[in-house]
Structures are given as C-alpha cells and as structure tokens.
Amino acid sequence: MAIWLSQATPESLNEMGKATLLSHLGIEFLEIGENYLKARMPVDHRTITPFGLLHGGASAAFAETLGAIGASLCIDREKKSCVGLEINANHVRPAKQGFVYGTAKPIHMGNFTQVWEIRIQNQEDNLVCISRLTVATLDKE
User: Fold this and answer.
1) How would you class 3 by CB atoms within 10 Å of its CB: exposed for 0-12, middle for 13-18, buried for 19 or more?
2) Which residue is catalytic, options 11, 28, 64, 78?
3) What is the pTM of this model?
4) Is residue 64 annotated as a catalytic residue, yes or no?
5) Nearest 5°: CA angle at 9, between 8 and 15?
6) Angle at the Cα of 103 (from 88 to 138), degrees rounded to 5?
7) 132 contact partners, CB below 8 Å, separation of at least 6
8) Predicted pLDDT at 141
9) How far is CA 129 from CA 2, 85, 103, in A?
10) CB distance 72 to 12 below 8 Å
C-alpha cells in the first residue's frame, strides 16, 4: 500500500531541488516506490574530503534530503510541515568514486513525528552509511 499523500515523480523532485543544496551536491532522485524513495549522489569534487573519500557530512546531507522529502510527501502540506529533529549516521565503508545510492523508508509515521531509515550503498550494493532521521510534523499556522 502506497504511503504518499502528495503525488510526485523523480523529475518533479529533481526540479524542486534546483538551486538548492541538492543540486550543488548533484543529488538526483531516481525512483519512488510504494513505501520508499531512491536517489543517487556522485562521489566527486563536491562531496569528497581532501583525502579523496566521500565526506560524512555529504552522506548526512544526502540522508537528510531523502528522509525529509519522503516525510513531506506523507503529509497534507497545505495543513502541515515537517522539520528535522535529529539525524544520526554511521559511516561503515568508504566510497572513493562513482555514485552512492540512497534508499529511504519510514520506520514510524505518527501524528507528530516520523522516523526514517536511510541506507546509502555504493555501486556494488555494499553499505556505505546507515542513517536514521526523526522529523516533527507541525501544524501550519
């Protein structure tokens, strides 16, 4: 069963991300499933450390992007908004080139909070980072 209250396509999400951190980091949405979002981010000059490895902050920004967009698609955006409360990220494997792929799925979708798990994998499907994002669902004033 689909969880989305707002209709979106990867193309519409990519358009929404223009002139934001998403476009600066090269984040590109690829797929919207019944209960997940998938995107990719390049491992290049925009996202690496001076040592040539994917920056943990870039992974965290990628994870927060996926979870926050997912959360916002699960609410009535005319009446509510989502804001981040907490994010954690465990960096378990380095990435040095190509792309990393993120998949975000909800763990909890309550009236006041949502919790999303975001798995970031390399091109060989090895886990690079596992992250959890908690967002608050607020009434608009």
Assistant:
1) middle
2) 64
3) 0.96
4) yes
5) 95
6) 60
7) 87, 88, 107, 115, 116, 117, 118
8) 80
9) 26, 19, 11
10) no
| Cβ atoms of residues 66 and 37 within 8 Å | yes
Q: Are strands 99-109 and 127-139 parallel, antiparallel or unpaired?
A: unpaired
Res. 2: pLDDT tops 90: no
Mapping DSSP onto H, E and C, the string for 77-108 reads CCCEEEEEEEEEEEECCCCCCCEEEEEEEEEE
Number of H helices, E strands in the chain: 3, 6
Q: Where are the domains of the chain?
A: 10-139
Q: CATH assignment of 10-139?
A: 3.10.129.10
Q: What is the pLDDT of residues 57-112, one digit of tens each?
A: 999 999 999 999 999 999 999 999 999 999 999 999 999 999 999 999 999 999 99
